[in-house]
Design brief:
With 316 residues, the protein is an alpha/beta fold. 35% of the residues lie in helices and 19% in strands. It contains eleven helices and 15 strands. Helix 1 packs across helix 6. The model has no long low-confidence stretch (mean pLDDT 95). It binds threonylcarbamoyladenylate (TXA) and magnesium ion (MG). Threonylcarbamoyladenylate binds next to strand 6 and strand 7.
């Protein structure tokens, strides 16, 4: 289907106003955040939220994240907020951290898939903060890609993926982080890490003196599927460039079009470029992307988590 989406300039007040009107009217639009682009709908309109699931082709049992302009809106959407959760907001918001909290009565069932908890985050992106302030309401915003695919880190990626389903993408430039937010469940004691991201458990311990443990129990977040973040090409993981070259020769000998990706020199850059590199590989008709794993430190945990899931997508 042909694209009908327009890219609007996030630096233009009138274009942000147009987005506010679209959201109020129940439309779904693409918005920038510092992590990845989101597919936004106003959080108080059930049919707008349902449209998000339809466009993403995502099962309605997979709950969405509420995005708020600042911490003052938190108590509208959550109750019984623990002192740990308050400390995390204070330290890391606005920023790439999503908290699972007990939901308030205001949260619609469609947002949480019927759960009594809700995911909330306050993004750190000036364009989206301005949008949310003008809207004076929260939006739901999953990553603006089809379910299970690679998240978008530019407005153009959103148009490529969803341009036939939405009419507007608000352009806020390339995402500065490039991987989805860290998710911490603050309804358990101790809090649990449900998804790794730019903010690490080690950093939370160091800066807030809060111990966050790995998720236990059965699939705590539906997004913790084994398979996810999948490009079209096959992703093969290696531990070094040397190993990558040997693997590459093997695949080339079998007739595959291969690309070797080693971004381990600079982990922030690795995170920022990972998804666009996988998208470029697909565009170039690459069959096998051989990627050198990140060292297990800082954002390297999150990079490797995404890579493992992308690689797993070809095992079944
Ligand atoms: O960085 C981000 O978080 C991006 C940008 C757009 O803000 N959004 C994002 O949303 O990654 P999404 O929908 O792709 O991922 C949301 C994750 C899913 O894994 C979902 O299962 C989990 O959050 N989640 C949402 N509500 C939850 C809840 N009540 N309990 C447990 N997990 C929840
Ligand atoms: Mg996603």
């Amino acid at each position: 289907m042909p694209s009908k989406a327009r890219i609007l300039d996030g630096n233009s007040e009138s274009e942000i106003d147009e987005c506010v009107e679209m959201l109020r009217a129940g439309s779904v639009i693409g918005i920038p955040t510092e992590t990845v682009y989101g597919l936004a709908a106003i959080a108080t309109n059930s049919s707008a939220i349902n449209l998000v699931f339809t466009i993403k082709e995502r099962p309605t049992s997979h709950p969405l994240i509420l995005h708020i302009a600042d911490v003052s809106m938190l108590d509208d959407w959550a109750t019984n907020i623990s002192s740990e959760a308050r400390a995390l907001c204070k330290k890391f918001w606005p920023g790439p951290l999503t908290l699972i909290l007990h939901k308030s009565d205001k949260v619609l069932t469609e947002v949480t898939g019927g759960r009594d908890t809700v995911a909330i985050r306050c993004p750190n992106h000036s364009v989206t903060t301005k949008l949310l302030k003008k809207l004076n309401d929260a939006v739901v915003a999953p990553s603006a890609n089809k379910f299970g695919k690679v998240s978008p880190t530019t407005a153009k990626h959103v148009v490529n993926d969803l341009g036939s389903d939405i009419s507007i993408v608000l352009d806020g430039g390339d995402c500065s982080i490039g991987l989805e937010s860290t998710i911490i469940d603050c309804t358990t004691t101790p809090p649990q890490l449900l998804r790794t991201g730019a903010i690490t458990a080690e950093q939370i311990l160091r800066e807030c003196n809060i111990t966050v443990v790995s998720a236990s129990g059965e699939s705590r977040a539906p997004g913790m599927l084994e398979k996810h973040y999948a490009p079209v090409c096959r992703v093969v993981l290696v531990s070094s460039s040397q190993e990558g070259l040997i693997e590459a020769q093997r695949y080339v000998a079998d007739g595959f079009k291969v690309r070797l990706l080693d971004l381990t020199e600079d982990l922030d850059m690795f995170a920022r470029l990972l998804y666009s590199s996988l998208r470029t590989a697909d565009k170039d008709g690459i069959n096998v992307a051989i990627v050198v794993r990140a060292p297990m430190k800082g954002i390297g945990f999150a990079i490797n988590e995404r890579l493992e899931k992308a690689a797993n997508s070809f095992l079944k």
